[in-house]
């Protein structure tokens, strides 16, 4: 049976830009558009040309994209003609392959928010679609509040959608703008719509306010819709939009969808998914969600010993899809209840060959248990675990030695009388026979220590030049009588590879120092730096 084509429409740059705390620059938008293009998304909605300088520049910028680059904007204003609406003119003139109009389809909104008649709203839809078609653009219509509108007045909601389709809109997109619709309602309403408009002209735009945006998108597809709109990592205002990072692998890897539909994302594109998801977080300066389906760090992580031994025998026993299909990795967590099989599986994952009868494996397990009892959490710090394992197995060279460090924090008044806090660190490092002293200032003691430590590592400096800290997390643990500090540091190298290291101590500087040292040594091991 021939598979049907299902189209993906990304609105990260438009609806996703509404996310609290997200503010894309032009460079961000261009980079994200090309990631989406590389992934194989059919439509990328860039923003509102004419509405703000970034979006106007974005549409004017030269592009080399395969995707259908789409401009978003309003239909003509009520009471004006299409040729006499400056907003519409800007939209029509934008260098876009397609135009996605947004229009009201809930009678209540037309009357109360738009303050016009139901007929005038439909005339505005017709005129706008016609004007964009005349400009040679592919046209989409986002029917705002479609599901609420349909529940209130099905004939009117449908009349809005049909008006656009009849004027030649390629897609009529049913939007759950408030995000309150449930999957069975979406399936029922889309089922009714596709009786009037062919499903291969119907799209779904779901918001996640009941955490069912992905389920609602799939429900719409089951009912006949053939375009899904969503965003990377589910970005979007309030609770976000439908998450394409979850939808794409579901469509590619689950038999019910993979058997029926083709999408523009190839197997090779799918393989880049985890990377693209993390790269977006990186741009937004957010730590990726460890528990994100398919692409999260914990998505294929297993803890209990008995599961770990089964996974070693046959991964399919505990995994719903193979982690590498989406560019993720299997991970067996080393934790307090870890058995030997966990440690062996983890060693295998990080590429350390070990014999299960080697007595050093038992010793490693004992050390892990001891350290976890005082606050270390190796399941959150894979790089520190790898170093510990390699050290126990005798495979980490002594690259350098920090013989002394000193950190001071000073509060004073600067020249203009403002109170400032300045931190300074001095580090004495021995590399081979050579001793060096480096000093650095930082915005805090840990930052100063990090700067000083990475300033001059002699012959190893070139290996750590691309190293940067991407996240720093501190937790105070109350174990027994005294509080200890656990520091987790996430580092990144010039290739975008990330790893996490850990330090635990009653003293935050000491805990940070341990984590920083592990991060640098890990980078040297990874780079195979010669001793
Ligand atoms: Zn939306």
Brief characterization of the structure:
This protein is of the alpha/beta class and 531 residues long.
Can you list the strand order of the major beta sheet?
Answer: 2-3-4-5-6-7-8-9
Poorly predicted sequence stretches spanning 5 or more consecutive residues: none
Mean pLDDT: 91
Q: Give a count of the beta strands, DSSP E runs of length 2 or more.
A: 18
Notes on the protein architecture:
By secondary structure, the chain is of the alpha/beta class. Helices cover 38% and strands 22% of the residues. The protein has helices spanning 26-39, 53-60, 86-93, 107-112, 118-134, 146-152, 154-166, 183-193, 213-223, 244-253, 255-258, 267-271, 273-283, 305-313, 340-349, 359-373, 382-392, 445-453, 461-464, 508-526; strands at residues 4-5, 7-10, 43-47, 68-74, 98-104, 138-144, 171-176, 202-206, 227-230, 261-262, 301-302, 331-332, 401-413, 419-431, 434-442, 468-479, 482-492, 498-505. The protein has an eight-stranded parallel β-barrel, surrounded by seven helices. Strands 13-14-15 form a three-stranded antiparallel beta sheet, with helices on one face. α6 (146-152) packs across α7, α8 runs parallel beside α9 and α14 (305-313) crosses α15. The termini are far apart. The model has no long low-confidence stretch (mean pLDDT 91). The chain binds zinc ion. Residues 15, 177, 205, 207, 241 line the site of zinc ion.
């Amino acid at each position: 049976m021939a598979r049907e084509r299902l189209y993906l429409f990304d609105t990260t740059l438009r609806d996703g830009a509404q996310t609290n705390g997200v503010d894309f620059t032009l460079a961000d938008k261009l980079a994200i558009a090309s990631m989406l293009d590389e992934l194989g998304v059919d439509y990328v909605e860039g923003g509102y040309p004419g509405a703000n300088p970034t979006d106007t520049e974005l549409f004017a910028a030269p592009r080399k994209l395969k995707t259908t680059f789409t401009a978003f904007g309003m239909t003509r204003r009520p009471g004006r003609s299409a040729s006499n609406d400056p907003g519409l003119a800007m939209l029509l003139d934008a260098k876009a392959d397609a135009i996605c109009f947004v229009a009201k389809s809930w009678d209540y909104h037309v009357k109360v928010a738009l303050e016009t008649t139901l007929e005038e709203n439909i005339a505005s839809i017709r005129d706008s679609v016609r004007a964009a078609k005349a400009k040679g653009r592919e046209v989409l219509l986002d029917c705002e509040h479609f599901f609420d509108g349909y529940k209130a007045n099905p004939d009117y909601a449908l009349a809005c959608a049909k008006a656009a389709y009849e004027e030649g809109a390629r897609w009529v997109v049913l939007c759950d703008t408030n995000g309150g619709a449930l999957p069975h309602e979406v399936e029922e309403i889309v089922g009714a719509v596709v009786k009037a408009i062919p499903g291969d002209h119907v799209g779904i735009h779901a918001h996640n306010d009941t955490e069912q945006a992905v389920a609602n998108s799939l429900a719409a597809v089951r009912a006949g819709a053939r375009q899904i709109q969503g965003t990377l990592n589910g970005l979007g205002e309030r609770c976000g939009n439908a998450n394409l990072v979850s939808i794409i692998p579901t469509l590619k890897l689950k038999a019910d969808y993979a058997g029926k539909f083709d999408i523009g994302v190839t197997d090779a594109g799918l393989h880049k998914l985890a990377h693209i998801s993390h790269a977006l977080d990186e741009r937004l300066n957010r730590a990726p969600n460890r528990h994100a389906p398919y692409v999260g760090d914990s998505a294929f992580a297993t803890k209990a010993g008995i599961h770990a031994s089964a996974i070693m025998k046959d991964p399919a026993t505990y995994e719903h899809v193979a982690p590498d299909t989406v560019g993720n990795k299997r991970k067996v967590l080393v934790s307090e209840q870890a058995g030997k099989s966990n440690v062996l599986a983890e060693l295998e994952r990080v590429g350390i060959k070990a014999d299960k009868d080697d007595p050093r494996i038992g010793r490693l397990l004992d050390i892990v248990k001891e350290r976890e009892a005082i606050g270390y959490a190796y399941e959150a710090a894979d790089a520190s675990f790898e170093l510990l394992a390699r050290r126990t197995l005798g495979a980490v060279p002594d690259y350098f030695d920090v013989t002394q460090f000193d950190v001071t924090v000073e509060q004073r008044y600067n020249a203009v009388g403002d109170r400032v806090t300045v931190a300074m660190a001095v580090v004495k490092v021995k590399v081979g026979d050579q001793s060096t002293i480096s000093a650095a200032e930082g915005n805090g003691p840990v930052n100063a220590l990090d700067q000083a430590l990475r300033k001059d590592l002699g012959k190893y400096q070139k290996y750590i030049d691309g190293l940067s800290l991407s996240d720093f997390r501190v937790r105070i643990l109350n174990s027994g009588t005294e509080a200890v500090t656990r520091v987790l540091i996430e580092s990144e190298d010039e290739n975008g590879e990330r790893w996490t290291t850990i330090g635990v101590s009653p003293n935050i500087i000491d805990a940070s120092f341990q984590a920083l040292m592990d991060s640098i040594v890990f980078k040297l091991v990874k780079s195979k730096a010669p001793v």
